[in-house]
Design a protein that fits this description.
The complex is a heterodimer of chains A (about 300) and B (about 220). Chain A is an alpha+beta fold. Chain A has ten helices and four strands; from the N terminus they run ααβαβααβαβαααα. A four-stranded antiparallel sheet of chain A has the order 2-3-1-4. In chain A, helix 2 packs across helix 10 and helix 9 (about 215-255) runs antiparallel to helix 10. With about 220 residues, chain B is of the alpha/beta class. Chain B is built from seven helices and ten strands. Classes of the chains: A alpha+beta (about 300), B alpha/beta (about 220). Chains A and B meet through helix 1, helix 8 and helix 9 of A and helix 2 and helix 3 of B.
């Protein structure tokens, strides 16, 4: 394993000799990795929240103030007959007002000042997990909207779909930006390694002439890229971690008051390792390509 | 392999840009253990021939077989393996200025895969063989031209090559040092290594007295 020792010794020495340009290459990798890992952090958390909401997806049938009990009964019967409901609950106008007061305690004064109760009675339906998103749910929602005594039907699946689509677009855009930044970072790393190659041109020429195996010739450049890429990505994960902690310190109480204390979770260890590994792979690939192309 | 020549060249041609010929239909054989001079005026094709043998360049036509390797069929990895059996010495020494004499030798030994103790042992052996074991910690800039060339020769011997190529090895040295270097090549040759020296110095050839290949305009005009 002489060549591994040689590759690491020469690669690390080269980084130290050109520490300013090496730092530049590491920063470029760190920026790209930061964008990608931030994207991972945001989207993975939002996806988890959306999954939670989706699993609790249902619809609310709002009744007119003049709706009679037989009309309400017809709505409930239609829901029961369909077999899609995991749970059904009638929320009266008074219940709706009380719920508002409970959930938005800071707006209590506003609620107290109301001349009349503006909330509508409703029937809230939680759809069975296996039936969510099905055409029969859509058909039932449409049918319920036409029943007498029904003012409106709000099916929250629709907006979850919209948010999911929006999230998917954000993910694609972020991925594109991340890839562009990764390509730019790779070019920077390649340029720095190229400088190292030029500085050692005579040694490399000698290595070729004496018949040194390719692993001795290319190894130091692969190691140089590996260290720059891996260290840059590790710095990105570290910066993201600090940013995450700071954000939690600032906005944690707000999230807790919204009952969303579990919303934000940091990247799991395997994902962090993947980001660092990705940086190392990009860097070492740059080292390999540069040493191959210039040989 | 003992019956076959170490170098067997047939119909070798090399054309440079705009079709200028550096070598034309050259055929020759070098026996194992031989000492041979290649001489001729500037531009005769001496260095080109050595470059082709060392596979620093590819021929336009013809076939070169060295140490049983047909050079036209070698892959990149095989080229490196083939070169490990050849030592080379250049006119300008090509030592690494930032490394000491010992480090220059150990560097080559290391990239040939030797362990640290093997590197040092081999470096001492080859430096002793060129009489420079006492200058191991000197830098190239602290050595005379003759000493630098002897270090370059020691470095060429590191892999214990069966063939040693030297391209104008005395070009930068005065006549006394040139003869000293030639005597060193003779000693190496006496140890069984085939030596090919390209030089335009006819006086030196007369003093050493070996088989000589005279090239002119890319072709053999005389064999003596």
């Amino acid at each position: 394993m002489t060549w591994i020792t040689f590759a690491f010794r020469e690669g690390l020495a080269s980084i130290w000799r050109r520490r300013t340009s090496s730092l530049l290459a590491m920063s470029a990798i760190a920026m790209a990795a930061l964008v990608l890992s931030s994207l991972l952090l945001v989207t993975s958390n939002l996806e988890r929240v959306l999954r939670g909401w989706s699993s609790a997806a249902g619809f609310s049938v709002y009744l007119t103030d003049t709706a009679r009990s037989d009309q309400r009964g017809a709505v409930e019967a239609a829901v029961d007959v369909s077999g899609i409901a995991q749970q059904r609950e009638y929320v009266s106008k008074v219940d709706a007002l009380n719920r508002f007061k409970r959930e938005y305690a800071e707006l209590e004064a506003l609620a107290a000042a109301l001349q009349s109760n503006p909330f509508q009675a409703s029937i809230e339906v939680l759809v069975k997990t296996e039936r969510q998103g099905g055409a029969d749910v859509e058909a039932l929602v449409s049918a319920l909207a036409t029943l007498p005594g029904v003012a409106d039907v709000r099916y929250n699946r629709e907006w979850i779909r919209r948010v999911t689509n929006g999230l998917s677009m954000v993910r694609r855009l972020g991925l594109l930006i991340g890839l562009i930044m990764t390509a730019a970072a790779a070019l920077t790393v390649a340029a720095v390694i190229r400088l190292a190659f030029d500085a050692r041109r005579e040694e490399i020429r000698l290595m070729y002439l004496v018949g040194a195996p390719y692993r001795f010739i290319r190894g130091p450049f692969v190691v140089e890229g590996l260290v720059q890429g891996g260290a840059g990505a590790a710095v990105a994960v570290l910066v993201l971690g600090v940013g995450y902690r700071t954000a939690l310190a600032w906005w944690g109480p707000t999230l807790a008051s919204l009952g969303a204390v579990d919303v934000a979770r940091f990247l799991p260890v395997p994902l962090m390792a993947l980001v660092v590994l990705g940086g190392a792979v990009v860097g070492s690939a740059c080292g390999f390509v540069v040493s191959r192309r210039t040989s | 392999m003992s019956g076959r020549p170490i170098i067997d060249i047939s119909g070798l041609s090399k054309l440079y840009a705009r079709g200028l010929p550096a070598l034309r239909e050259l055929s020759m054989a070098v026996e194992r253990g031989e000492f041979i001079f290649i001489t001729g005026p500037s531009g005769a094709g001496k260095s080109t021939l050595l470059r082709l043998i060392l596979l620093q360049d590819r021929p336009s036509n013809g076939r070169i077989v060295v140490n049983g390797y047909d050079l036209s069929t070698l892959s990149r990895a095989q080229v490196q393996e083939y070169r490990r059996g050849i030592g080379f010495v250049f006119q300008d020494f090509r030592l690494i200025p930032a490394k000491t004499v010992l480090e220059n030798i150990c560097f080559v030994a290391e990239v040939l895969g030797m362990t640290e103790s093997q590197q040092k042992r081999r470096a001492f052996q080859v430096l002793k063989s060129v009489g420079l074991q006492h200058r191991m910690s000197a830098y190239p800039s602290e050595l005379s031209g003759g000493e630098q060339q002897r270090v370059a020769i020691a470095r060429a011997l590191t892999s214990d090559p069966s063939l040693l190529l030297a391209d104008e090895p005395t070009g930068n040295l005065d006549p006394d040092l040139a003869l000293e270097i030639m005597n060193l090549f003779r000693e190496i040759n006496a140890g069984g290594t085939t030596v090919i020296v390209a030089t335009h110095d006819r006086d030196l050839i007369r003093l050493v007295g070996c088989r000589t290949l005279l090239l002119d305009q890319g072709t053999v005009v005389e064999m003596a």
